[in-house]
Description:
The complex is a heterodimer. By secondary structure, chain A is of the alpha+beta class. Chain A has helices spanning 25-28, 37-49, 76-82, 104-107, 130-142, 152-155, 188-201, 222-229, 248-258; strands spanning 4-7, 12-15, 31-32, 60-61, 114-121, 128-129, 146-147, 157-159, 164-165, 173-174, 177-184, 206-213, 233-239. Chain A has a 4-stranded antiparallel beta sheet. In chain A, strand 1 and strand 2 (12-15) form a beta hairpin. The mean pLDDT of chain A is 92. Chain B has helices at residues 34-46, 80-85, 100-113, 125-134, 158-164, 174-185, 191-200, 209-221; strands spanning 18-23, 51-53, 93-97, 118-124, 141-146. The model of chain B has no long low-confidence stretch (mean pLDDT 94).
Amino acid sequence: MGAIYVDPAKNRAVINDDACVECGACYRGMSTENLNPVMVRTIRKVARFFRFRFEPEPDVCPTGAIEMNELEMPRLIRQIFSDPVVEHKSTGIKGRGTEEVKTNDVSLRVNAGEVGYTIEFGRPGVGVRFSDIQEMTWTLAKEGVAFERNNPITHLMTDTRSGDLRTDILNEKILSAIVEIKTPIDRVERILGVVEEVNERIDTVIAVGISTRCEDGEDKTLGPLLDDLGYYYARAKTNMGLGRITNKIELKRIETVAR
Amino acid sequence: MTNTLHRYGHSDSFRDDYIIFAIPSKGKNDEDCIPKLKQFLRICAKYGPSNMGNGNRGSIAPEKGLGPAAHWKRNAAPDWEKVIEGVSKPGTVSAVFASEEQALGCLKEVVEADFGISVNMSTSVENAQRAAENCGIKRHSVEYALAFNDPHDHLPNSQILGLSTMCGHGMVSFNMARKMLDMVREGRRTPQQAVTTLMRLCPCGVYNPERAKRLLEEASREQR
């Protein structure tokens, strides 16, 4: 995000709170030394005076100066969507992640003839504000798509028919977030076109994942369609089909339904 | 979050990048899954992974309270056991392999172990298809990564993208990737030292140090 910079007036590193997405990389990802700050600054000044290159390990904070703030809503939402190791239940959001088709062999989230989309805003490394995400959810809602119920962004909608998000979070900036929808396969061209069109209006990057269920181990529909439409895809996440339902309550429920 | 899907590169650039991960589904097969997830990681560890992770830490993690000598001598040895023992709740566990042989060997044993938990492979489309065929399994679902939409020109060059997108959660920033690439180019760090710094920042353990090292070596010879 580039939220930390050295303020020339103070001659100290400061954090631009508006740009900071509370990802915690500066705190959790950095190793620390806990040296005396006066000594560290003196060494830096001497090195600068003699034009030495000051070249410590880039991921070591010499003084252990960085601390995480106690966050409250709406700023807390930044951390939920930016820090991969923090979970918060206080907001009512069931975590940040989503299973997508990673568990499709068990959940059948995307079934035969359907296409799942993970429309990820701000990734890679650019970040996004919820107001920009709302531009997309509004447009997709007008297209009549169904938002995935078990998705953190859907949980933040006040109306899934219009795509409205909570007003208190609209100005918050996060590292990334995924809007998850599914459609019949004949809508792929239209939906991908809509995503590109909305992206022109919102100042961020978007990474789209598009998924389908294989038939007899082969994708005979979506891959060929993407080829025809001219979309490039080199990488994929492939569910190998080794999962099954093993929870006792769920097994009982399925048995009851079958009876 | 799709933390392994959107890695930047063309198909051939994933020749040394195979991620196998297991993930339980909430309410479906997450009961008593922790021993299974640990066993999954133990199998992975047998096949010489380049990295492993449990969602909270990778095989090399940041350290607190270092002494000044750390700038010359830092712990760079992967600790598989800490990753395995660190699995404390249902979630994604993963292993990264740098060769098809290692990934195939691991996947075959995971298939035999029959944990009943969803197992995914994240790599090129062709690599995963071949792996499934060689293991005698049928792919259930596939999610393709389309190219990034960047109409406002926010993204850096392909070399920086290749390095930073290996942490899908964005914990390896463009600036950090650029800094490490510059340090390698100027002979201030070896590619191995630079890679170890980058992988420490990825808490999920999906950063691929072998591929990163190759990308750094290629990039240090030719700047794009």
